[in-house]
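Reagents: none. Just compute today. AraC family transcriptional regulator.
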Amino acid sequence: MLLYSKESFLECDEFPFRAFLYATMPQRADLTHYHDFIELVYVAEGRGEHLYKGSSYPISKGDIFVIPPFVQHDYNVIGDAPLDVYNVMFLPSFLTSELQALSKVTSFFNFFYVEPFFRQTLDFESHMKLSILEGQEIKQRLERIIEEFDRKALGYRISIKALLIEMLVWLSRRYEERIVAPPIQASQSKAIQSVCKFLEHHYAQDISLEQVCQLCGMSQSSFTFKFKQTMGKTFTEYRNEVRIHSSLKLLRETDDKIIAVAENVGISDLSYYNKLFKKHTGLTPREYRVKYRRDAGES
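Predicted 3D structure written out:
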């Protein structure tokens, strides 16, 4: 399977971004691939299928969606006309602080993180399709971003970031207008399991209990009780466990400072991270790193 790498597609390490309009032609050869960056896609013209993690979804003019990193996908064109899509590609680090701030807004959180994760779940129906007028506006916004990227005039990087943030806020507002029911319609136990799987992929996000409850369509008291009944621990305890487990790999395989490891898994307070780590492993992060590398060297 093809890997579309950030080195090949994005501008550079200092500015990991790219935007362009691409036409997928009928009878094009299979190009199933994945990439190590985020991709925001808007279908400008045509009809087709989006092959996403082994499933197929119809797409057509007006559809807009996010493809997370390392997800297998491709397109098939339906009919004789090409499928024209706008692609906006960037690393999460490109908008680190902005994405953290926007993630506190439930509509953005659902559009950017929840919808891509639950796209394969039949009960999940928060797919966004823009109207004709909205489509005209998003095309104007995308064309401005592409023009800045292609021309690379003075200050283009600052301009692109500002335009992208403004567009993401605009999309969040359009998404909020469409939400009339909780994203997940399922039994409470199934909803809890889905949330756990989501946390395993998005443990670094600053997800509030309120957002999770809304995602499940449950009150906070009901969710709290049901989560502990199902998982044997509280939501916070489970998330902390996932974060600490994920940090083990970073401690083993990188030379990042301990504070950087903690921040990479969503914990900004170093003393709190050290306390959690010791509670779960019996060691401090530094002791774990030294012990692992000593043991690895002896084997």
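The two ends are 34 Å apart (CA to CA).
Action item: order primers for follow-up constructs.
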